[in-house]
Specification:
3-stranded parallel beta sheet; alpha/beta; 2 domains; disordered N terminus; D-Maltodextrin-Binding Protein, domain 2; 15 strands; globular; 9 helices; 3-stranded antiparallel beta sheet
Length: 248
């Protein structure tokens, strides 16, 4: 399986009626705002990241051309369940019971869990949920995903603000406009490694135990092929090589 670090410009045409057979484009829904797994360059429209490389490899495995379709965390479940919109969704998607009600998931390919991402000066102040769940603590989250859900469920006493852009939300933390972001350990570690003003708090001791997986529509005709491809990629080192390429 040949992997290429490509990003493809999204098609904005109407969804095809049938997510069909070999030769048809593989419509890959992704948010493009979750480094290092998926990122859309706002200037070029090109996608890159771990799951972009993996989805491109999947398309080659299926004999289909990859077409990256933009989605958002608030609309992800609806898009996946809309016929013809997405053949598969990728990019740091957590396998949850609520999402399983309207979609199918592959086996997990990456463990994760929620941790605090904070400014360096606050690393000792916001290590626990009790420390964060206090009046006056400013929590910032991106909308519609498991980060916001966690914050609203576990931090009712904190001040929760929703920032619409998950690619610039980290600048708000670094600038002191918020105190804490609860996010997945993989994202927190990645962002803190690239911003000396941020620190991922206790990434080896997350508040939750979660798993990333690829999301497909209910009754997907490619489910069996995707499962075979992913099992092979996890066993033969393909995923490990792609992952290391983007997180080093």
């Amino acid at each position: 399986m040949a992997l290429t670090a490509v990003g493809l410009i999204c098609w904005s045409s109407s969804p095809v009626a049938v997510a069909g057979g070999k030769g048809d484009p593989l419509r890959i829904c992704t948010t493009g705002d979750y480094k290092p797994l998926t990122y859309r360059d706002p200037e070029t429209g090109l996608y890159s990241g771990v799951d972009i490389d993996m989805a491109t490899d999947l398309a080659a495995f299926l004999g289909r051309g990859p077409v990256f379709v933009p989605t958002t965390w608030p609309t992800l479940s609806q898009d996946v369940s809309t016929p013809g919109e997405c053949d598969i969704a990728v990019g740091g998607i957590t396998d949850t019971p609520a999402r399983r009600e309207i979609a199918e998931f592959t086996q997990s390919y990456l463990p994760s869990g929620k941790i605090p991402l904070v400014a360096v000066a606050n690393a000792d102040r916001f290590e626990s949920i009790d420390q964060i769940n206090q009046p006056g603590v400013r929590v910032i989250e991106n909308p519609g995903g498991t980060n916001e859900k966690f914050a609203r469920q576990h931090l009712p006493n904190a001040q929760i603000a929703i920032w619409p852009d998950n690619t610039t939300i980290f600048d708000q933390l670094a600038a002191g406009n918020a105190d804490v972001m609860i996010t997945d350990a993989i994202e927190a570690v990645y962002q803190s490694a690239r911003n000396p003003n941020l620190v991922a708090v206790n990434p080896d001791r997350p508040f939750t135990s979660e798993f990333k997986a690829y999301m497909l529509p209910k009754g997907s005709p490619i489910r069996g092929d995707v499962d075979r491809w992913l099992s092979q990629a996890l066993q033969d080192g393909t995923f490990s090589r792609v992952y290391q390429k983007w997180v080093r």
